[in-house]
Specification:
four-stranded antiparallel beta sheet; DNA-binding
DNA sequence: ATTAATGTTCAGAA
DNA sequence: TTTCTGAACATTAA
């Protein structure tokens, strides 16, 4: 499930489209519900086709393709979406295609098995408006320690749940929340308003370490094998998970207690009771 | 054959 | 204001 490191890997995988001109757009109807409806498709044809890409950015868990005309194409993969430049995992869940003229990359594909994700075209103004309303908090890789503390500290929620709130901080999902809290030695059920300044500092530092390392390994491809990079290759960070999906196995850090699994906000949480003490 | 589980986001409710 | 719940979806495991 693409989180910040996976989406960052997708972004890097299509960086070579910068400077190329979009020559066409194709909607691929692979299931009863298309990823776009026809007004959106018309908008794409009107404002994206014929225009050059000037940058590829990332906003939390979204890939943002910036065009010369102040429009942006936003890929939001959610659970099973992939942004590809070649070889989809299967033909049958291809949803959308962008064609480029005169560059190294001829096509960018959007593939999505479950179809919960989206591809949207928004103007700079619309995006600024959404961000202005606080739809997304600061990105987990650019947020400062002070900002992190300021935005989360007053809440009563468990820190694990708060880290998943994209309006507070953008980019962290279920897997990386578990890994970050384990490295930071913070129990996932500790309430935000009970964390001390030193906890916030450590949390910020560990968040950076975990995310950067995961990006270096091009993200995590779990047992279901869904996540792939833009070249349809598996990531490697799953081999470095210390708690995620390891319930019952001995903690790799202390070697003394088995990893526990609990449910918070209807999602699995994994942690070590010894390395991540309550309080 | 059916049911649960998976995890992200959003709408709507508490 | 903040937090919580259920729905959207497709596929697999039990």
């Amino acid at each position: 499930m693409p989180e910040l490191p996976e989406v960052e890997t997708m972004r890097r995988g299509i960086l070579k489209i910068v400077g190329s001109r979009i020559s066409g757009i194709a909607l691929i109807r692979c299931t009863r519900r298309p990823i776009l409806v026809s007004p959106a498709l018309r908008r794409f044809r009107e404002h994206a086709v014929g225009h050059k890409v000037i940058a590829v950015d990332r906003l939390g868990k979204r890939v943002v393709v910036r065009l010369e005309n102040r429009y942006r194409i936003i890929f939001e993969p959610r659970m099973t979406g992939l942004v590809l430049v070649a070889d989809p995992p299967t033909e049958c869940h291809l949803r959308f295609r962008i064609d480029f003229a005169g560059g190294k990359i001829a096509h960018v594909w959007y593939w999505d098995r479950r179809g919960l994700g989206s591809v949207r075209l928004v103007s700079d103004a619309e995006l600024a408006d959404q961000l202005g309303r606080g739809a997304l908090g600061p990105d987990a890789l650019s947020i400062t320690p002070a900002e992190l503390q300021e935005r989360l500290r007053s809440g009563k929620r468990a820190i694990k749940v708060a880290l998943l709130d994209q309006r507070k901080i953008a980019g962290i999902g279920n897997l990386y929340a578990a890994e970050i809290l384990h490295l930071a030695r913070i129990h996932p059920q500790r309430r935000c308003n009970r964390l001390r300044a030193s906890d916030w500092e450590r949390l910020h530092d560990c968040m950076h370490q975990v995310l950067q390392k995961a990006i270096r390994f091009e993200g995590s491809t779990l047992a279901d094998g869904t996540y792939r990079n833009a070249l349809n290759q598996a990531g490697g960070f799953q081999n470095h998970h210390r708690v995620y999906d390891r319930a019952g196995e001995l903690c790799l850090t202390c070697g003394e207690k088995p990893i526990e699994r609990i449910v918070q906000a209807q999602r699995s949480t994994f942690f070590c009771g010894k390395c991540q003490p309550r309080r």
